[in-house]
Records
---
Amino acid sequence: MYQTPDGNTQLDVKLDDENVWINRQQMAELFDRDVKTIGKHINNAVKEELNGLPTVANFATVQTEGNRKIERKIDYYNLDMIISVGYRVKSNRGIQFRIWANNILKEYLVKGYSLNESRLREQNKQLNSLKNTVSLLTNVLENKELNTDEATGLLKVVSDYAYALDVLDKYDHQQLTIEGTTAQELFAINYEEAIQAIHDLKDKFGGSSLFGNEKDQSFKSSISTIYQTFDGVDLYPSVEEKAASLLYFVVKNHSFTDGNKRIAAYLFVWFLEKNSILYRADGYKRIADNALVALTLMIAESKSDEKEMMVKVVVNLINIKN
């Protein structure tokens, strides 16, 4: 983060939750002031400008006391507090820190402006490209009458992908609903069988020694959650909703040391197959390989408050209407 010009002060900072953290002793070293003075500046910063902001965290730290190593909980302060104290300290180190901080801030402001300017130029270019494409298509439609084969081809494309386009439209307008699902469940997944299925997956396709190793009880919880009820009514009443929720929970809970996404996707299709709804009447899979990969990654990148919408998307892609 910062090194004094004489090179004597080097801090072993903690990086956690996308922030830098140092304790009072380290702050005293950084600014060449005693811990008591640093404490006074911290208290004033909290009262005057940082009130209500999360600036302190409690970390377990190993300290040497005599011949023993003792683990203690120590308060650490983030970059907001470090900067605030740095602008209060009256010492040569404080002056050096302020010069350094001002240069860094100026550099990032300039870089940030350049980056945003470049991004705006790129977006402008894409917008112009889109306008040109629309203009070109408009000219084609105005100047060329579609023959029968071309019209049939266009209608076939629209017809073949009408359901997918309809799902996207409903997603855009937050109108996705659960429909076309299977009420009767032929197979109820349980923890023991799921673990055996994961072991079978590892035996068949190989994997690291960490593949499928449970980190905690969250996988067992994922299995039981899809069968939860409220006032005697299933929270996930259909097979498709249970399958989609199983995929979601196993991906998001990170229950295993390695292989979480593969395990989630495998259990998802295994559960559908056990309930005889993985394949359509014509023998084709209800969900293609690339769609399964895309859905799994989409869930992994989604926010927690998007859970209900993610489940609805998956259900709409595996229900009998697809």
---
Amino acid sequence: MDRHTSQPPSLALTFSVAVLATALYVMSAQSAEPPRRAAVKPAAAPAAVVDLPTEMAPPMRLTAGKSTLLKLTEPITRISVGNPEVADVVLINPREVYLLGKKSGSTNVFLWAKSGRTTIMDVIVSFDAAGLQDKLHHLMPEEKAITVSGAGESLVLSGKVTDATRVQRAVFLAEQFGSKKVINLLSTTDPMQVMLEVKVAEVSKTVLDKLGSQLSWSGTSGRTAFTLLTSMLTGGAGSVGVTRSGSTNALTLDAELRDGLVKILAEPTIMAISGQEGAFLAGGKVFIPVMQGSMGAAGVAAFTLEEKEFGVGLKFTPTVLEGGRINLRVTPEVSELSQIGASFSTGTGATSVLPTITTRRASTTVQLFDGQSFAIGGLIKSNVTEALKKFPGLGEVPIIGALFRSTEFQQERSELLFIITPRLVKPIDGPVALPTDRFVVPTPAEYLLGGQMEGTSRSPAAAAPAAPRTAPASPSSGAAAGFELK
């Protein structure tokens, strides 16, 4: 009986465990089913991805060595700079960006927002043009029309200044401000023009003294004949000879004394704008062959002709300063062809003589007022040449030795002087009188019958254009070449 009462509880426990396990399985299956459906849905709809555009922001201009803070309208997550050597970019927070200009140049910055939008911004770094502008206005307060701007790695100076000296000062300050290159676009309000009156005087003196002899003597003593022949002639201007009649004995003396004096005078007038160079040359040109490279396979070298100028030349650069002072840099030069050339051997073995040029040049810088003059002298050339020919032994005898020697003495001395006078000039308004305005072509009757080279009356057509003209100006009035003294 006890057995029948113990079996039912075992069956009931087994059944309960099976029911509980089935319920737990169903519940776990139901709870795991929704996540599986949620993971599948995004893969089934790829068309929901949005392609956001890329925007270009206005360029950001920075000054080298200075920084700024950029405020953003939306938060960003990432930032990138193209060239970190030009600018340094730091993301402070999602809405603020710190930018620092390192050196002049340009680069770009990429900004990625949280929304997925990309913004590109150009960054341009230049020199401190505003700082230089303030410095120029402080040091040159009277020059208020100077404008400073940047162009890449250069500073650009534009506007107008009073004179060329102020231009040089502004460019010098810009170069000292740290810029590697300064582009000068400055112009002067009233460019001054300088007329240079130059007088060139050269005195050259030459002394030539020659003395020579020729002796011809013969004699016999028994069967012995004696002969004495000397030829010490110098090719002088004159000779004196003594010959014994009926004999071959002769004595000839020649001598020459030459004294020359040459005076050369040139008076050029040159014009130049303040700050620009003017030049003058009165002379000629000579072509000198110059060998190019080494000799070729055939042993023949190639030559080209190089042009050389000689004569009286002058170069000057005037700069008008404050108060009418003129800063003048002058380089006068006098060159001439030398009588003795330079010989050289060609590749074929022939010998040629090249012309040589002797040059005397001076260079100086002075400051003076309008109408003042200064002189450049001391350009002296002095050459002394002596030659002696004599018969050995006999030529050293004190008195008779003069018959057995010849002497030649030559001295050349020249001195050069420049007198320079600068003048401030300005163009003349209206027509300029010329010396030819008063010339009248003679009529056939005046030329053939009267023998006149110039007519006495002019026709109305010829007289009409001469009415507004004034009388020819004298050289001292400064109205030459269409300019008048200020």
---
Amino acid sequence: MTTLDVRGLSVRYHTGAATLTAVDGIDLSVPPGGTLGLVGESGCGKSTVARAIMQLVPVAAGRVLLDGEDVVGARGPRLRALHRRVQMVFQDPYASLNPRMAVGEALSEAITTHRVLGARQRVAEVVRLLDLVGLDTRSVTKYPHQFSGGQRQRIAIARALAVGPDILIADEVTSSVDVSVQATILNLLKELQRTLGLSFLFISHNLAVVRYMSDVVSVMYLGRIVECAPTAALFAAPRHPYTRVLVDSIPKTVSRTSAGRMRLSGDLPDPRDPPPGCRFHTRCPIGPMTHPDRTVCRDVAPSPGGGIGTHVAACHFPLNGTQATGPAAV
């Protein structure tokens, strides 16, 4: 199976005199045939990671390894080969579909860009793709405005599948559809993964959705990965206080009393001028705001560590279940 690994990835945007580091030296690995969930608040850099993998934004540093080959800077045939194996479903199907192109045309265009098929084979493939995502053949001649939001997202998924990818990047694919439709989209993705053997990078700010979809979860805060673990381990015993806050915010999924839950304080820092040391220390419920002796949090950026097995957290004082432990090596 195709492997996708990100190593030391950084992406910077220049806004006037300021430079915004949207993604700052992160590592990710998508499990072959499985799902890596990437979660965090809006503006933390999740979508930028996806666009950097697809080479839609310039990469300032780091590598994107597809079966061990670095695809950063790919152009021409190499970029086409990347897009043949890795496809992306965007957040907003209203914007990602061409309103002047019928569904059949949109799917045919994707097919002919990456595959050599005769006219009859192409028509049969369009019908097969529509069937895969639960739409009937009458959809071929219709335009995007004639479909509901959930149906448009199905069309977007079909278009991504048209090139026969090994890996699908799903960027907030349920955030623009009604809650009643979200479950059908998620179940569709799970079924496609089972039948087609796809690997997923599933991006969302919704932890409940990530928990349902993912085998492994990486948690992102202000451009950095703060925790990564198998899904069950992360939700059972988060080790980074930011992850703990997120897990505690999920309604009816934890047994802790309201008094025992961790909560954020303060506002999200300006990403153009992130705090020194641990970027979470200005809001951390176990950091220097409540424990003044923990100055290391303000002064030194923690490396991923203090974890158990494959469960790692970038925290000087990682949690052990519900209790804080001593400082990790710095």
